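Section 4.2 – Deliverable D4.2 (structural model, holo form)

The reporting period included a commitment to supply a predicted holo structure for the target in complex with guanosine-5'-diphosphate. Inputs used:
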Amino acid sequence: MFESLTTRLTGVFDRLKRRGALSESDVAEAMREIRIALLEADVALPVVKDFVAKVRERAVGQEVIKSITPGQMVVKIVHDELVAILGSESSELRLGSPPAVVLMAGLQGSGKTTTSAKLARRLRSRERRKVLLASLDTQRPAAQTQLEVLARQSEVASLPIIPGQGALDITRRALDTARREGYDVLILDTAGRLSIDDALMEELAAVRDLARPSETLLVADALTGQDAVNTARIFHERIGITGIVLTRMDGDARGGAALSMRHVTGQPIKLVGTGEKLDALEPFHPERIASRILD
Ligand code: GDP
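Output (structure tokens):
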């Protein structure tokens, strides 16, 4: 494993402190350490550059140079800046008037179907909402059945499957059922592809126009690092996402992808997937990712 950023930074400053005074070039060495650590944590280069510039501005300030614990001081500045970029605002879902539609988008294998069921379960059990799940995935064999099974395990209703129906017809039927049967929230699980293609984006845009979602959530696998960042940028350009769900944060992802995705889309990370079980979905806490990058 990498030596932690905190250890490296305190190390740099402790070495320097023994010489008596800190200079601007000492700070530059610390910035180099931060830069390397962020790149190793999957943060995209332009984001790293912006970030280091901000930290440097604060670090060359007198408070650090004069501090008896400059290393810890810089660690705190880095932590605070990480939290600021990741967004300190609430990651609550904004659900409009019932039936509020949540559109789930993402590449195949990102965890979209599992996350749809986890979210449905969470809204049902924590907020007592009446939730309907519907799968628009007519591409992957058994995708609709998979959601049906997960819905049952989550004790949430799912739209009955009618074989041969296309994504738009299923959307119409789901909206109709949700309105008629008084659902609070309708979660639409869409088809994914192994990589982004025009057909996928066009179908998604058509579903979005029809369903007018209150939230369009991109589900992205944190372990895919830079690829997840590119995916986020493209999905945001093409369909306009309102938030991100980062899955597989139970793995050893360093979490830097979260920083980059937030930066390139301007949209918040709202939820984090932390396992395969249906209760493994948590609200996003910027401080936890900041600590993960620093530790
Ligand atoms: P989809 O193709 O995007 O719908 O992906 P799935 O929902 O079918 O998920 C693919 C695999 O990832 C399944 O085996 C899930 O159990 C697993 N998975 C989803 N989210 C998480 C997570 O947060 N952590 C872990 N460890 N596995 C996850």
